[in-house]
Every structure is written in structure tokens, then in C-alpha cells.
Amino acid sequence: MKPKRKDRSAPTLPLVGRLSRMFLKPYYGKVGFAAVFMALAAAATAAQSELMQPIIDKVLSGRDPHALIPVAASVFGVFALRGVAVYIHSVTMNDVGQRVVSDIQRATFSHLMQGDLAFFHRMSSGDLISRMTSDISMMRTAIAEVPTSFVRSALTLLFLVAVMFQKDWQLSLICFSVFPLASIFIGRLGKRMRRISGNNQVELARFSTVLNEIFQSMRHVKAYGMEGFEAMRTGETIERLYKLTHKIFRVSAISQPVSEVLSGLAIVTLVLYGGHEVIIGHKTAGQLLSFITAFLLAYEPLKRAGKLNGVMQTGLAAAERVLALIDMQPEIVDTPDSMELPAAPPAIHLRNVTFRYADGRPALADVTLDIPAGKTVALVGPSGAGKSTVLNLVPRFYDADDGTVSVAGCDVRAVTMKSLRASMALVSQDVALFDDTVAANILYGRTHATHDEIRAAAKAAAAHDFIEALPQGYGTRIGANGVTLSGGQRQRLAIARAMLRDAPILLLDEATSALDAESEQAVQAALKILRAGRTTLVIAHRLSTIMDADIIYAMDDGRVVERGTHSELIRAGGLYSRLYGMQSRDLLAMA
Asked: Among 36, 166, 457, 462, whose Cα sits 20 to 30 Å from the Cα of 424?
């Protein structure tokens, strides 16, 4: 994947607009429904301030017994209406918010699944997990909660301001002179919050990465006695998180004292001017108290806006990180005129292929090789020779910079990736197993296979006997990456998966390099069955495992330097012969 644009902070309104169009649009109906009850709650709040005048002038000062019941009933009705309206609005918007989180996670994950292999090699798993979980959860506030809270606050403010201007427009203008000052302060505060929150999210992603690395490598941590070192390294990350989180709180908390000072100035003005008006008889005490109540209720939404703005900026900082993922487009995609891979003999050919790493370093230089249909071809050579790069080009994990890679007579760039990869099965030294049952892991190669087909694949892979000996047989959960199984058992499950897939092309990437002699013998027997009748490309470290290959290519420094059978290459006395001799001497020395 490559980014479409630079990762930098976008203006708030356009960013909120984009998020709303992308994720909130399907729920505009529910938002509108909630808005009706927001308006009712806002009107009820304004009515509360209006009721202060009859409470003071008619009930307390006027002592009118006929006004007592109607005023009390009105107060109860207004509070009940506001309570019901707030409940319905809150429940509806919470449902929208949770739906939005689910939709964002689903959309982001689906987009990531289309990403290039190179993208996942560049990005740490901790960073991706952080963006998929904590960042998206914070986005909910920016998309659903904060905008609706702003609307509710704005409606409440509008109704209360109307009450205030209806009572005394001159006093209202004086009081609201502090609002522009508060708005400017809130705006500046929000920009700072966005920046600090972005840094905090980056640090959280690093923390997830560190934890993931440590937990996956716990065996080595303990073997090398590095518990103290890892505790210190993790403690430093936790300390940075503490400082950033505390800084976010400090910046957010600044709005409270500033708001209190500004509201205090306005209240002082109200007391001085309004009190004078009551003393000289121009206003009643009920009118003044009703006005003061309306002002205090009106100032609450403004103070709340300061907090909401901080929460929104935190959500938008997280949203920028998630949108950066969504905006990344894969470089390896199907062309508009790509076709299905034909049902032809699955021969593989590389012609004058050159491939360079992202930093420009060459990995392959003018490589040409042939893998005939139904034959086994092995790639051997020292580390860094380019063997894995050749294998990765066949299923289009990467694209060649120059030259062509063809399968079944078609350039791999001219066929759909789905049909291309459906023709292949991969077994590598790094076995990928999931924390699920044995059956589910074998089914990963072909999800709709029957139980009889699963058992047949396991028997062909020499895995059936040890599976049956497990506590629940094929229904036994094997832990993360098959942690409860031995290395040989994990490899045989991977072979059973490839057996079940029954693809015409088999890619073997050093499938036995990490096994002991007994396990290797069992796995090699299973692989021999699997290779029968299939076009097989093998990367081998142990040359004894590919002596029966139909063709062996010896590679060095990104080039093919030798080609032939085992006996032919031994007689040639070149690179292959030297590598084979070295391994044979090592085996004799160990014996």
C-alpha cells in the first residue's frame, strides 16, 4: 500500500464532514429521531428557567394559594419531559455510536485485507491493533456523540437566550459579551488537544507493539534472563504514556477555571445591574431570578462545549490515524481487463526477472527459470541469494520490476489474484495456525470440506494418529499458533491443510528446516505424497531433502548460477556441490 496524501492534521469541520458522510450517513434517520428529543430536552431546560418567575412572584412572594398546584404541576411536567427526552435521545445515539464503531472496524479491516504483503511488513502488528481498537473507539465520540451533544447544547442555548432576550435584551447583550472570549479560547484549546492526543495515540500503538513482542518472545525473555530489562523498557513506555495522558487532562481542565472566571464576571454584572433594577422597582425579584437562572443554564452548554471540543479533538486525532489506513491503496491490484486463470497445465516460468527492494537494493537480477507442470523444482543457495523472492513473485505477493512471471501460460499480472492464488497451496517453515480446533485449522485451506475429507487429508499428511490421541481429537483447541503441539505436529497440520486445498501448484518454503530428524522423516513422507502430480516449487536449506527434485536451481547474489539434477550438479563441482559437501561433512562430524 502507498499513502494517497501526507499524514497531517485536517481542519475540524471538513474532517467531521467526511467522517459523517462515510460512516454516519446510514443512520441519519435515527439521528433525526434523536434530534426531536434533543429539541424537547432543550425546550424543557428553557422552561425550567421560565418557571422561576411564578415560583418567586406568585407562590413565595405573592403567597397565592391558587397558583401553588398549577405551578408545582408545571415544574413536575417540565422535569419529567426533560428526563424522558434525554433518555430516548441518549439511548438512540448510543446505539448509533456503537453501530458506527462496528461499521468502521468492519470497513477498516476489509480494506486492510486487500493490502500488499509489503504493507504488513512495514507496519507493526501493535500499531494496526491499536488503530483497529482504541483509535476507532475514540472515533465514535467524534462522529456520533460529540456532534449530537453540540447540537443539544446549541438548541438549549438558543432557547435560553430567547428567554433572556425576551426578559431584558440590554442585560442579555452585556452578559453575552463574554461568549466570544470563551469561544476563541475553546478553539485554541482544541488545536492543542488534537496535537497532544495524536502523540498519545502513537505512544499507545508503540506500547501495544512492545507488549506483543514480549509476550510472543517470552520463552527467549526467560531463557536469557531479560525479565528486568523488559520491565524497564516497558516502564519507560508506560511513563511516557502517563505524561502524555496527564498533559491531556491538564490542557482539558484549563477550560473549567477560565469558564468560571468569565461566568463570575457576568454574574457580578447581573447582580449589580439587576439588583439595582429590583431596588428601584423596575423589575420583580422573580424576573431577576428567572433571568439569572436562564443565564446560568445557558452558560452550562458553553462550558460543556469546552470539554466536548477536547473530546472531539481526541477523537479526530484518532480518526486521522484510521483514515490514513483507509486512504492507503494497494500497489498490487487486478487490472481492469484481468481474466480468470485458465485450466491449463500449471507450468511456471520466470523470464529475465529483476526485482529491487523498496530502498533500491537488488534482490533478483535477470533471473530466468522454468518449473514444468507436474514436476518438482528446487531452489538452493546461501542466505540472501533471492530464493524467497522468487517464491513470493509466483502468487504475486510482489510484482517484478522487470521481466515476466507466468503461470499456466499467462502473465500473473493479467489474471485475477483470486484465481491465481486459488491454484496454489503454501507450506512454509513459519507455520500459521490459529487458536481454534484442529479441524478448523485444516479447514482453513478449504472451508466447506466435509469431515471425511478432513480426516483423509490428515491421514495423507501422517497427522491422523496424533490428532486422534489429543483430548478431543479433531475438536481439540491447539492454542495460539499451535503452541500445544510439537514442531513436527504443526508442520503436518500445515501439510494436511495443503492436502485438503488440493491445489495444482505447491509452494514449499523450507518446510522441514526447523525439525528434528524423526519429525523431518515423517514430514518428508507426507510431502512426497502431497507433491505427487503437482507443480512444486521448493526452497530447501537441507539439500538432502531435495535430491529427488526433477530440476535444481542454485542461486547466488540474486542470480541463477547453476541448473540440473542432483547428480549433474554434483559432477559439475560448482556452488551446489560445495554446499552439499559442507552439509555432508557437518553430518559426519555430528555422527
From this structure: 462
